[in-house]
TrEMBL record:
GO biological process, one term: glutathione metabolic process
Entries under Pfam families matching the protein: GST_N_2 (PF13409)
Domain named GST N-terminal: residues: 3-83
Molecular-function GO terms, alphabetical: glutathione transferase activity; maleylacetoacetate isomerase activity
Name this protein carries in UniProt: Glutathione S-transferase family protein
């Protein structure tokens, strides 16, 4: 079976990254359609794939699934032999909880520090206390999970939850947040994973610039 995964700019689109990492990491057969964001025809091109008109979108047998977490869940159901989620029911539930927390939370950090793989900034306070609370919570959950799993990933082996947290590792390192050695080690492990490297290498050479995501 072959999927089509529709993604936005790899330099900026954290939502696209999450779903793409799962489909690529687990060696599924897919074709990619990259639709540059913030262009005159972006909306029309995306609406041709799904009524949401957003990225990412997965096409399977002519039907669309959109939203990064929904795509990951769909792939897990379609490929139950793959360790997309932990095998243990409680661990799986916890991994889904952490993924959902990332999916709906940490808005202050996301707003203050858009993903921009081409840039590395010296640290300065961005997003105020709310962003600092976001980082503190991320550090706490990483520290807890690495202590329990032994690392290098949140549940030992790389899985969907690490795909969900991959963009935030880019934010932590890209904006030079002062974080613990455990957090930095986790960020390094995620960013050295082969699929992340493929995404990163494609993203940093893209020609498109989205001014709204080019913070100073």
């Amino acid at each position: 079976m072959s999927y089509t995964i529709v993604v936005g700019n790899k330099n900026y689109s954290s939502w696209s990254m999450r779903a793409w990492l799962v489909i690529d990491h687990f060696g599924l057969d897919y074709e990619e359609d990259l639709v540059p964001l913030d262009e005159a025809d972006t909306r029309a091109r995306l609406l041709a794939y799904s009524p949401a008109g957003k990225v990412p979108t997965l096409i399977d047998r002519g039907r669309a699934v959109w939203d990064s977490l929904a795509i990951i869940e769909y792939l897990a159901e379609r490929h139950p032999d793959l360790p997309i989620w932990p095998a243990d029911p409680m661990e799986r539930a916890l991994a889904r909880s952490l993924s959902a927390e990332m999916h709906s939370g940490f808005q202050a950090l996301r707003s203050a520090c858009p993903m921009n793989l081409r840039k590395t900034f010296p640290f300065r306070r961005r997003g105020g206390r709310r962003a600092e609370r976001d980082v503190a919570r991320i550090e706490a959950l990483i520290g807890d999970r690495i202590a329990r799993s032994g690392g290098p990933f949140l549940f030992g082996e790389w899985g969907a939850v690490d795909a969900m947290y991959a963009p935030v590792t880019a934010r932590l390192t890209g904006y030079s947040w002062p974080v613990s050695k455990v957090t930095l080690s986790y960020c390094a492990a995620v960013q050295q994973e082969a699929s992340y490297r493929r995404w990163y290498k494609a993203g940093v050479v893209e020609p498109w610039v989205i001014p709204a995501d080019e913070v100073k």
